[in-house]
Amino acid sequence: MVIFDYVNKFVLHDIDIHIPRGVTVGIIGASGAGKTTFLKLVSGLLKPELGRVHTLRQNPVDNKSKIAKRISVLFSDIPVYEDNLTIMDHLDEIRIMYGMNKVEFETCLMKISHELNFSELLHSKPKSLSLGQKRRAELGLTLLRDADLYIFDEPCIGLDQNGKAAFYKLIDDKKKKGKTILVSSHDMEDISRIADRVLLLDKGALAFYGSKEELYKSMAPMEESYIEFEGTIPDISDLEIERYILENDKLTIQYNSNHVSSKEVLERICLHSRVKSVIVRRAKLGDTIKQLNGEVKKSELY
């Protein structure tokens, strides 16, 4: 169990989890929930007030130099590049610092800079770059190293859809190599696309930790079916339907998928009617998280 506080204001408390090697975990929660603090504890930048943190089977605070050689991190509030150096100058310093093979480094840099579209920026200084350009170069630096653990805090800030797609692809490459990846994000597209498991923090406490499927089942079970039909609608009052709207030959049904499935609904309707079209929609996980935080109403989830 881990506890961390800033001047008696508890930021994290009662956190007790294990993240297996080779798993990608998406860390979500409202602003101030403790996402960045959690990642800094894992990386050894912060020390817990109570409890223990083991990163790669070592205490990250007591073994900073050993851990630093095995992890690669990107935090949204910690500058990566110095303004007086070009991107390439800084990358060369990192290569030398970590003893990276020059040929392998240059080959990897060519691939990553092409994927993230910052090849033409290598001889530019960070202060001359836009937010999106700087973020692509920062991601490139983080992904260049062959680490055992990658930590990303809000990695897609400033990226357009092409930039996001490139980042997702590079993360997929790392996952195929069995790397462990931790990603915090307010963007549920990031989490849905790359995470194997989700860690949900709520006011510093662990609200959920498990697979995306388990999270959907636990917190986003609502589905809505739009059915266009010909014929008569049978009695479905015995099914656990939360909302039922019939307009001419169009039926809208909202239900908890843990209690009744879209298949059950359709099978019942098909007994007496010919179904012309069906659309099944699930509440977006991001909106469901916002609902838990009181940011949206249940009626706005679809």
TrEMBL record:
<dbReference type="InterPro" id="IPR017871">
    <property type="entry name" value="ABC_transporter-like_CS"/>
</dbReference>
<dbReference type="GO" id="GO:0005524">
    <property type="term" value="F:ATP binding"/>
</dbReference>
<keyword id="KW-0813">Transport</keyword>
<dbReference type="InterPro" id="IPR050763">
    <property type="entry name" value="ABC_transporter_ATP-binding"/>
</dbReference>
<feature type="domain" description="ABC transporter">
    <location>
        <begin position="2"/>
        <end position="228"/>
    </location>
</feature>
<protein>
    <submittedName>
        <fullName>ABC-2 type transport system ATP-binding protein</fullName>
    </submittedName>
</protein>
<dbReference type="InterPro" id="IPR003439">
    <property type="entry name" value="ABC_transporter-like_ATP-bd"/>
</dbReference>
<keyword id="KW-0067">ATP-binding</keyword>
<dbReference type="InterPro" id="IPR027417">
    <property type="entry name" value="P-loop_NTPase"/>
</dbReference>
<dbReference type="GO" id="GO:0016887">
    <property type="term" value="F:ATP hydrolysis activity"/>
</dbReference>
<dbReference type="InterPro" id="IPR003593">
    <property type="entry name" value="AAA+_ATPase"/>
</dbReference>
<keyword id="KW-0547">Nucleotide-binding</keyword>
<dbReference type="Pfam" id="PF00005">
    <property type="entry name" value="ABC_tran"/>
</dbReference>
